[in-house]
Amino acid sequence: MGFAARLLTNRNFIFLGAIALGLLIYPLANLTKHLTLPALALAMTASLLGIPTKTLTSRRSLLMPFFVGVGMNYLVLTNFIIFAGAVFVEGERLWQGMVLMAAVPPAIAIIPFAHILKGNGTYALIGVVGGYLGALILMPVIIYVLLDGVQVAMADLWIVALQLIVLPLVLSRLLIRKGWDRRLEPVKGAIIDWSFFLVLFSVIGVNRQLLFAFPLNILPVAAITFASTFMMGLVIEWTGRLFRIEKGIVVSVMLLGTLKNYGLAGGLALNFFAGEAALPAALGSIFLIFYILWLDFKKRKL
After folding, report:
1. For the segment 123-170, what is each residue's pLDDT rounded down to a tens digit?
2. Between the CA atoms of 261, 280, 223 and 36, what dihedral angle is there, to the nearest 10 degrees?
3. Ranges under pLDDT 70 in the chain
4. Among candidate residues 22, 4, 40, 17, the one with its CA nearest the CA of residue 262
5. Nearest by Cα to 263 from 111, 130, 160
């Protein structure tokens, strides 16, 4: 394999390239942003090919990750973001953005990231599903109580869940039944990585001007976002080692306890409030990228 081919299959090069190009040719992101949902659905479908259908039909094995998904993403991560935001974040718009980021369900990308990081794919999938079902009740309540009666359209959440969980799950089962999962195995990693290239490029490009417009205001938000990913992840990892939990499960729990659906939070911010309210979600997207790169680096080193 030549040098160029190795670069084009190197995950770190692909992800860092998405960041660099998003900052340099950001106007193009206004076009590619419309392709982010299909790209993420493609990454989800490829990731789910590694999960046997029989695993998804075992009630006993699904109950624990379901409640862990709700608990880690809402009881742990949501409360941390809200309390830290209340103490350190100044400005009404930034506070609104923090509340939205705390209220949204876990990141859909947890499932393909679990595949990338050799986590337990079934655990991640069911945990995300649990987080989304919990969000149907918890998200509107959190936003309504903390943001003076603001109401959100839950139809948007249902559409996201349908496009990015249900549809990829059905497609992956069909591909497995037809035997295409074995044919796609050699290129599955590349499909996931380049799908995320499009998503990350679009997120960075669309929010580039917003990120550079308020450099001082975003410092406390950046610190909280850093703590909620890198620091929270270290605590979860250390706890998993302490109790000798299987590594694959620890990886999935760590993702469920550190990553929110920043795209949904940013969309809600832009729809209900001024542009500055989208800054926490934009920062969250950037920290998500570097957090996954860091975890992937650690995995490769070990």
Report:
1. 999 999 899 888 888 988 898 889 876 666 667 667 777 887 888 888
2. 50
3. 1-3, 55-58, 60-61, 149-154, 156-157, 210, 214-215, 270-271, 274-275, 302
4. 40
5. 160
Biggest CA-to-CA distance, the chain: 58
User: What integer pLDDT is reported at residue 60 of this predicted model?
Assistant: 67
- For residues 61 and 126, give the distance between their C-alpha atoms in angstroms, rounded to a whole number: 10
The H-assigned helical ranges of 227-278 are 232-242, 247-256, 262-272
| Integer CA distances (angstroms), 60 to 64, 65, 66, 147, 247, in order | 8, 10, 11, 39, 20
Q: What is the pLDDT of residues 159-175, one digit of tens each?
A: 777 887 888 888 988 99
**What's phi and psi for 106, nearest 5 deg?**
-65, 160
% of the chain surpassing 70 pLDDT:
91
The helix/strand/coil state of 244 is coil
Q: What is the mean pLDDT of the chain?
A: 86
CA dist 136 and 158 (Å) reads 9
Residue 188 tokens, joined: 């599955």
Cα dist. 43→3, 113, 262 in Å? 25, 10, 17
Contact yes or no for 15/293 (Cβ under 8 A): yes
What are the structure tokens assigned to 268, written together?
């809600």
Vertex 170 angle, CA 281 and 175, to 5°? 115
Task: Give the C-alpha separation, 53 to 246, whole Å.
Answer: 22
